[in-house]
Amino acid sequence: MSAYDWDAFYERVAAVGYEYEPKEEVHGCTLCGSSDIEPYLTEDNYQFPVGTDLCTHCGMVFINPRMDADAYQAFYEGWYRRLISAKNGREVTMATLRPEQELYAGWMCDSIGKHFPKYPRVLDVGGGCGAFVDEITNRYGGTGTVLDPAPDELKEGQWEKIRSTAEAWDPGYRRWNVITVMNTVDHFLDPVAVLTTCRRAMARSEDGAVLILNVQDFAYRCKVFSSHDMPVTRAVKVDHPHNFTRDTASALLRKTGFDPIEILKEEKPGHLAWCFVAKPSETTEEVRAHPELVKELRRYRDE
Ligand SMILES: [Zn+2]
Questions:
Q1: Ligand 1 centre and the CA of 289: distance in Å?
Q2: Which pLDDT band holds residue 154 (cuts at 50, 70, 90)?
Q3: Ligand 1 center to residue 186 CA distance, Å?
Q4: Which of 111, 265, 274, 283 is 20 to 30 A away from residue 183, measured at CA?
């Protein structure tokens, strides 16, 4: 991590010419609904003036004020890939992202494939290039659907495509028995609404239905920067209106009617993520307080 040239990165970001402009205020915590929120950080990793708040009840960190759905759509259409390319110091396209996602999809199937039903009907929410749907259906048969708002991300692949944001999507009477939400939950403007819709779109638990939710751990990202004497603001990303941890992702699942049955830890240098396997449940749970998480996050901010 220390080898990364941040000065060169900020020069490349400046050359992109993006100007951040928040559009709407968020009132209260987007996960638990508490009004006990406090300012967290005032900048993101691109050094855009992206303010975040911390919920002192559940430990959710969310951008506030933030861009609205239209502003985010314009951001994804015009700027996102260029900023990611600036971060990587090379052009990032669907083609360059695909091998990395294929590797990850392979690891995921090796690790949790045993939980999949016999004939998977897979829906990947925010599935981009379809790597997860391809891996699962190649291995286990079944059918695949990719839900993604970006038109060019959906050009390739043999699966069914639904072009929509996760928030605007209505599954109607359709049901899937494997729903994957891979590294996309941080991008949602309303994760509770999206997961509630996913729950509605799930086949019954008796039919072996599972939801796979993968999140990068925000507290760990803060910890990494903090332990390298770098600004913790680098853990914040303008494209992540939400910043989940193991605790808050678990709370999100329980609140929206899912019961985690296995939680895999994915760890490599500078990176920690959690992969939840969850079954649909008939009950929902209120979001509990996470005082230790709140304390930890405050420490990174105040150091
Ligand atoms: Zn909260």
A1: 8
A2: low
A3: 15
A4: 283
Q: Please give the distance, rounded to the nearest whole angstrom, from the Cα atom of residue 58 to the centre of ligand 1.
A: 4
Q: How far, in Å, CA of 216 to CA of 72, rounded?
A: 21
Whether residue 180 lies inside any domain: the answer is: yes
From CA 236, how far away is CA 41, in angstroms rounded?
A: 8
Nearest in space to 191 (alpha carbons), one of 237, 146, 234, 240: 240
Task: For residue 91, give the 3-state DSSP assignment.
Answer: coil
Domain count of the fold of the chain = 1
Strand 121-125 relative to strand 178-182: parallel, antiparallel, unpaired? parallel
Residue 117: both structure tokens together = 């039903």
Distance of CA 284 to the CA centre of its chain: 21
Closest among 246, 193, 213 to 60, alpha carbons compared: 246
46 C-alpha to ligand 1 centroid (Å):
26
Q: Which pLDDT does position 89 carry in this prediction?
A: 87
Written as six digits, the tokens of 2 are: 């220390």
Q: How far is the CA of 176 from the centre of ligand 1 (A)?
A: 30
Q: Tell me, what's the pLDDT at 114?
A: 93
The per-type count for the chain, helices as H runs and strands as E runs, is 9, 11
Centroid of ligand 1 to alpha carbon of 28 (angstroms): 8
Asked whether residue 1 is domain-assigned, the answer is: no
Instruction: Name the residue range of residue 129's domain.
Output: 6-302
Specify which residues 148 forms β-bridges with: 163
CATH of the domain at 68: 3.40.50.150
Q: Are strands 242-243 and 160-163 parallel, antiparallel or unpaired?
A: unpaired
Residue 155 confidence class, pLDDT cut points 50, 70, 90: low
Between the CA of 41 and the centroid of ligand 1 the distance, in Å, is 16
Mean pLDDT in residue range 164-170: 93
Binning pLDDT at 50, 70 and 90, where does residue 153 land? low
